[in-house]
């Protein structure tokens, strides 16, 4: 007996997959940006290749995320999450530390991402 699924099942699955692709895109972009510092002005081939591959991978994932989410929402979430992720990875890899004002700014970015996610503009 063939099992049928309601349309909501496929919509929910598409949204979940879009979020997974978005998060993968954010990670690829963030790692690429962190590797950019190691290129030393694109004079070091391995880190430079990582940057190019990371950006390409990020855009491939973001293109998949846009199948189930609006373009503006994907871009806003991607940018906000990438800013915070790059900042955290820079602190981890390069021991770059920010002052309290910068961390408050990161908190505001994170809150903005949450607000976008909860907004009506996020409906599909």
Your description of this structure?
The chain has 124 residues and is mostly helical. It has one domain (6-121). Helix content is 77%, strand content 0%. The protein contains four helices and no strands. The protein has helices at 7-38, 45-65, 71-94, 100-118. Helix 1 (7-38) runs antiparallel to helix 2 (45-65), helix 1 runs parallel beside helix 3 and helix 3 (71-94) runs antiparallel to helix 4 (100-118). The model has no long low-confidence stretch (mean pLDDT 87).
Ordered list of secondary-structure elements with their pairings:
Layout: H1 7-38, H2 45-65, H3 71-94, H4 100-118
* Helix segment tally: 4
- How many domains? The number is 1
Low-confidence stretches: none
Query: Structural class from helices and strands?
Result: mainly alpha
Proportion of residues in helical segments = over 70%
> Major sheet: size, sense and barrel closure?
none
Termini separation: 31 Å
Shape: flat
Oligomeric state of the chains in view: single chain
SSE order: HHHH
Task: Give average pLDDT, whole number.
Answer: 87
Transmembrane segments: 12-36, 42-62, 74-94, 100-118
Keywords: Cell membrane, Membrane, Transmembrane, Transmembrane helix, Transport
Protein name: Multidrug efflux SMR transporter
Membrane topology: Multi-pass membrane protein
Condensed summary:
With 124 residues, this protein is an all-alpha fold.
